[in-house]
Amino acid sequence: MPALVTENITAGYGRNIIISGISLTADVGTITTIIGPNGAGKSTFAKTLVGVLRTQTGRIVVNDKDITKMPGHLIPRNGMVYVPQNDNVFVNLTVRENLEVGGFAAKGDSTARMGEILDIFTDLKKAVGKRAGFLSGGQQNLLAIARALMVSPTVIVLDEPTAGLSPAYTDVVWNQVEMIAKTGTAVLVVEQNVERALKHADFVHIFVAGTNHLHGTTAEIAQHDLAAIFLGRAEAAQS
Ligand SMILES: Nc1ncnc2c1ncn2[C@@H]1O[C@H](COP(=O)(O)OP(=O)(O)OP(=O)(O)O)[C@@H](O)[C@H]1O
Ligand SMILES: [Mg+2]
Question: Which residues, judged by CB distance below 6 Å to any ligand atom, belong to the binding site of ligand 1?
């Protein structure tokens, strides 16, 4: 069941159009990944989904509700949250306080939700009273994801959650992402590492120069010459 549907999204910065005609879906309980060369528009698309940037054309639907023109601060409680690549935790607050901040946008008491989340993120449970600034980069990324999950979203959008992490911690983060999908959330992940994307995702979209150049199941995508696409020989690779 699609938790997120985008139809023909065009967006950019001011008059500078960066992405155009982007249509995709993210289903409940699955991992959908967006890969593509630097500057392809992956982060621009992620920011457009959650209202940081505005669509110039197209529609964004979450849980059957059109959120295209919804103010960004209302989108989390309507089911979709976003974790940016950098500056994604409050370094002066403790792990617990960061999670509490995440819960502010939730309806009702979030104590029980925090318990559920800490049961999934065992590294964070051990560090619950620690200031976020003292966590490793990988743990900070997990905290940012955990904080976003406090509102029990239907869709979580992650922008390169493993960038700059050691291979070992990259595995930890991806394992957590898989657990999040298993709880029934639709996970949309921007990933710079093609191998990891193919290993963990169910569906893959390859963005090239602001378009959704190629998409399919992981098995379908693995049949293509991805190196050629990434090196800019996109036309050759598709035929
Ligand atoms: N704040 C901004 N203002 C103007 N142009 C921007 C801004 N941020 C990004 N761009 C431009 O938009 C294009 C797409 O950038 P974007 O960050 O979406 O790419 P990306 O696919 O996420 O790349 P990367 O793999 O490097 O993270 C680039 O040409 C970039 O220069
Ligand atoms: Mg980016």
Answer: 13, 18, 36, 38-44, 192
Among 13, 159, 207, say which to mutate for ligand 1: greatest number of ligand atoms within 8 Å of CB: 13
Ligand nearest the Cα atom of residue 159: 2
pLDDT computed for residue 36 by the predictor:
94
pLDDT, averaged in runs of 10, over the chain (239 residues): 94 95 97 96 97 95 97 94 90 96 81 92 95 94 95 96 90 93 96 92 96 95 90 58
Smallest CA separation from ligand 1 atom 27, residue: 38
Ligand nearest to the CA of 84: 2
- Classify 2-238 by CATH class: alpha beta
Tokens 């549907």 belong to which residue?
5
Judge whether 187 and 76 are in contact, CB under 8 Å.
no
The whole model's pTM is what? 0.94
Residue 80, pLDDT score: 97
Q: State which of 17, 18, 82, 211 you would mutate to test the pocket of ligand 1, scoring each by most atoms of that ligand within 8 A of its C-beta.
A: 18
